[in-house]
Each structure stands twice: as structure tokens, then as C-alpha cells.
Amino acid sequence: MAGFRTLDDADVAGKRVLVRVDLNVPAKDGEVTDATRIERVAPTIAELSDKGAKVILLAHFGRPKGEPNAEYSLAPIAKATSTVLGKPVAFAPDCIGDAAASAIAAMKDGDVLLLENTRFHKGEEKNDPDFVKALAANGDLYVNDAFSAAHRAHASTEGLARVLPAYAGRTMQAELEALEKGLGKPVKPVVAIVGGAKVSTKIDLLTNLVKKVDALVIGGGMANTFLAARGTDVGKSLCEHDLAPTAKQIMIEAASAGCAIVLPSDAVVAKEFKANAANEVVAVDAVPADGMILDVGPKTVETINHWIGRAATLVWNGPLGAFEIAPFDAATVAAAKFAAAQTKAGKLVSVAGGGDTVAALNHAGVADDFTYVSTAGGAFLEWMEGKELPGVVALSR
Ligand SMILES: Nc1ncnc2c1ncn2[C@@H]1O[C@H](COP(=O)(O)OP(=O)(O)OP(=O)(O)O)[C@@H](O)[C@H]1O
Ligand SMILES: O=C(O)[C@H](O)COP(=O)(O)O
């Protein structure tokens, strides 16, 4: 790819190669429930290992806020990575210091080692130069293969590229090329669907997105914040009430940009967040005070499919409901199947992205029918906005 050094340019035999990967995979009770992100970085790891590098993987998992926390340990992910690669992946209980250094000293050429969650240190998210230095002490070269974390200017995604010879991994290359091909000059009308749960980290992105798309369909937890901003009582639903002013501003920006905002008209509500919890379909203005919206309702699905039917290009990040627990997967599955059918019929270019979004498309059995499925969620939306991603910019230096 233009402007980058890639693995074709790297002499890695016998070298300690620090490889930033995104192993922030959907998991439950220590088991990986969707291995797509691991499968996507496997070719880079395998290539480096085959070329005789000591492959040292750096990754984050969840948001442990700079403190060690067993819930966010990467130890179980080392096992899942080993299964995908079909070779052993050792694990070190810290990403810097003695624990990392001694595990690396024990490596032979071709070995693969995963270091513990970089976000167990405050210096990671602060991109603290001392923490960058401590990470860099373990490597001769740096490879960034985490496109889906490239919107973060963190020590392991950005800082390292400034202090070590830096290269783009195969997935980083492939993601950028595929997004440019699918969405570089999107055919109009462009419809975006944004759902999911990361409301505070994604809502700001919608301000620019409404200037780029013809319609923005909002579902999942994100929709609740918009409904609340409009004065709808969403009961106990996942909702970030303090972001209501941002949501209102986005609706104003959308109106002036000529972008239609499509919010749910009905919802599936339950009193508990668990599989097969007793539930009912209600209009969004009739959510019980003790109820939670866990999916958009069937009328909303019809509306969403109408918009997908009008689109020439679909951009999708974030499931429409809590798709991991039945029956709250219904809307996501129905819309995914319809988008896949439109794509197969040659009527739609469909590009979806996000860790859970990929899992949801796999759950619906249609991931292979989309035009392109990115591993990236937030990074994908920022790329769509036209923003420069710090992790990508650092590689281009
Ligand atoms: N109405 C809802 N209430 C609670 N959780 C919801 C609701 N709708 C969707 N979700 C949850 O949203 C989560 C996915 O959101 P998220 O924003 O992380 O998407 P993503 O595709 O993984 O993107 P990224 O890669 O940026 O994390 C799922 O775990 C799903 O259960
Ligand atoms: O899941 C993601 O989108 C990436 O792994 C980045 O995670 P973050 O939103 O916690 O930075």
C-alpha cells in the first residue's frame, strides 16, 4: 500500500517483532464466542513465524481503565489464538518488565508469545513516552495489524510506530484496501445503520456521518439515547441521558444536511437481560417504567428494510438489539438477511464492521454474503467520516 512499509519490506528472521493485534473478541465465561478477529490476524502471525521472527503479540481486551483486572486477562485468548493458528502461543502475565522480558528471552525463532493486556497500564491510553519505551525495549521491529484499534492514539497503536521501525501487517493492508474499494466513492443513496452499546464513544462520530450519508438508521442502545433526547421515556433501557444534548445536535445537523434520521417506532421490552426473558412488543412511547428495550420491534424492522431496499450502499456498525440472547436477536437477523439478499441480487454494496457486528452477521449466517465485513467498529466509522486514524498515520511517517 502506498506510503507504508509492509511485511514485504521487513527483514524479520531472528528478530523480536512486536505485533499489535486486536484480540478484543466477543467472549463469555472465558470462552471466545466469535473468533473472526483472531482469524483475520492469523496470516500476519503465521507469515512472521514462518520467516523465523520471534512473534510477540500486543493487544488490549475490554476497558480495564489502567488497572490489572482478572476479568480482562488475555490468558484465555492465548488459548483461542493457539487453536486458530494450530501452534502453541505462550503467554506472559505482563506486557512490560521482568515477566515480559523473561518470557521473550525463552523464545526461539518462529515462536509466538502473547503479552498480557496493554490496558492494565495507565500509560497505554495516555500514550505515555515512558510506557512506550518500556514496550519498545522488548522489540527490534513493530508491526501494526490492528486496523480496528487504529482510531486510538495509544502507546501500542501509535507510540511504538514512532520509536521502532514500523510496518503495516497484512490485515491492516487488506482492511484499508477493501474499505477504499467498497466505500472510497460510495454510490448513492448511502444508508448507515448504527446500533450497539458503545454510545459515548461513538455518538460524536455521528455528527460527521450525517453529512456523508442520505439516511442514518439508529438502533440498539444508541437509539435509546436519541429517543430519550426526543422526550421519550425509555424506562430502564441502556441509555446515556447526559448525551441527550449531543443527540439533539446530531438531529439538527442531519436535518440541515438533508440526512433522514430513522429511529425505532416499536421495541421489544423485557424486565431482565437474559435469554428468553418474558417480553412484549410495545410502541416506543409505551415502554414500562421497569422495562428495558432489548431489540427494535417488527414495525421498525419493516421500516429499516424499506431503507435498505432504497439504498445503493449500506454501511452498518452495531447490532439493532442484544443479539447474543434470544429472542432479542430477531431484528438484527432479519435486517442482516435482507441486506444479504439485496447484495446477492446485485442491488446493494453492503459493508459492515465491528467486533459484535461481525459476530451478529455470523449468527445470522450471512457474513459471507456481505460485500465486505471489516473487523473494525469505531475505527470503521471514523474512517467513513474521513478522519485520519492515528495508528494509520503513524505508519505512514
Ligand atoms: N438495546 C440494547 N440494550 C443493551 N445492549 C444492547 C442493545 N442493543 C445492542 N446491544 C449490545 O451492543 C453490543 C455491541 O455493541 P458495540 O457498540 O460494541 O458494537 P461492535 O460491533 O462490537 O463495535 P466495536 O467493534 O466498535 O466494539 C452487543 O453486546 C449487544 O448486546
Ligand atoms: O472493539 C473495538 O472497536 C476495538 O477493539 C477498540 O476498542 P475500544 O473501543 O475499547 O478502544
List keywords for this structure.
Rossmann fold; binds adenosine-5'-triphosphate; Phosphoglycerate_kinase; ATP binding; ATP-binding; 16 helices; single chain; 397 residues; six-stranded parallel sheet; Phosphoglycerate kinase; 2 domains; alpha/beta; binds 3-phosphoglyceric acid
Can you give a write-up of this model?
There is one protein chain. Strands 5-6-4-1-7-8 form a 6-stranded parallel beta sheet, sandwiched between helices. The protein has a 6-stranded parallel beta sheet with strand order 11-10-9-15-16-17, sandwiched between helices. It has 397 residues and is of the alpha/beta class. The two termini are 13 Å apart. α6 (155-163) runs parallel beside α16. The chain is globular. It has helices spanning 36-50, 75-85, 97-105, 122-126, 129-136, 155-163, 170-183, 199-202, 205-209, 220-229, 244-257, 298-310, 330-344, 355-364, 378-385, 390-396, and strands spanning 16-20, 27-28, 31-32, 54-58, 90-92, 112-115, 141-144, 166-168, 190-194, 215-218, 260-262, 266-270, 279-283, 292-296, 313-317, 349-353, 372-374. 3-phosphoglyceric acid binds at residues 22, 24, 63, 148-149, 152, 201, 355, 377-378. It comes from Neoaquamicrobium microcysteis.
